[in-house]
Amino acid sequence: MKTYKIDEYEFNEIIDAATINSRVLEMADQINKDYAGKKPLFLITLTGGMFFGVELLKHINLDCKCFVISAKSYGKNMVSSGNVDINIYDINVKDEDIIIVEDIVDTGLTVTKLIKNISAQNPASIRIATFINKPDCNNYKVNLDYVGFNLDDSFLVGYGLDYKEYGRNLNGIYSL
Ligand code: IMP
Fold first, then answer.
1. How far is Cα 80 from Cα 78, in angstroms, rounded to an integer?
2. How far apart are the first and last CA of the chain?
3. Is this structure's pTM higher than 0.90?
4. How far is the CA of 47 from the centre of ligand 1 (A)?
5. What share of the chain is helix, strand, coil (3-state, %, to 5)?
6. How many angstroms separate the alpha carbon of residue 103 from the centre of ligand 1?
7. Pick from 39, 113, 106, 56: nearest CA to 78
8. Is 48 in the pocket of ligand 1 (CB under 6 A)?
């Protein structure tokens, strides 16, 4: 089994690169079907969502726009802080079909705040595509439209997810 060490923590690979790649392809196929004839606008959340977002977008065959937005959850260690600082810059989302691309939905706070923020600008629609969902943690009961993997509540790194900014570059998902 592949392992990766950050400080005193040893993470074990639970999903390998090949499995991830084929799942991302399936998700893109679904989005291509669901949005046929439309021109969605993808909002990719920095920093973690970038890794999933770029791979997903490579398989989208629709006319679409793509921007990055920032949703920083300020917290220490491995616990969600409860504080989210959102910046959608000067992106015009009015009347657009928005797909928010997230790395992970844990408590659901970040994505809930993003939806609230973007909804205020009257988009035509908003859907969520998340690479990972932790269903046991989703306190906000957010409806997720596209989910890569539903996983148990353990701390993860890899494919954009970090611990103290390390581990984002791993091409698999690793769990504590
Ligand atoms: P939320 O609780 O759904 O708002 O998630 C907050 C943020 O915590 C996510 O956007 C991630 O940046 C981070 N996070 C939650 N769970 C994990 C994890 O297992 N590994 C790395 N980061 C995580």
1. 7
2. 13
3. yes
4. 11
5. 25, 35, 40
6. 8
7. 106
8. yes
* β-strands 97-105, 125-133 pairing: parallel
Delineate the domains of the chain, giving CATH numbers in brackets: 3-32+39-73+85-175 (3.40.50.2020)
Amino acid at 101: V
Going by C-alpha positions, the residue among 87, 43, 88 that lies closest to residue 65 is 43
Q: Which tokens sit at 123?
A: 């988009």
CB 146 within 8 A of CB 35: no
| Most distant pair of Cα atoms in the chain: their distance | 50
Residues annotated as catalytic (active site), given as ranges: 106
Q: pLDDT tens digits, residue range 52-93?
A: 999 999 999 999 999 999 998 766 567 766 788 999 999 999
Can you give the C-alpha Rg of the chain in angstroms? 16
Residue 58 to residues 25, 74, 125, 146, 152: CA-CA distances in angstroms?
Answer: 9, 30, 22, 16, 28
Residue 112 and residue 85 in contact, taking contact as beta carbons nearer than 8 Å: no
Pairing relationship of beta strands 3-6 and 125-133 according to DSSP bridges: unpaired
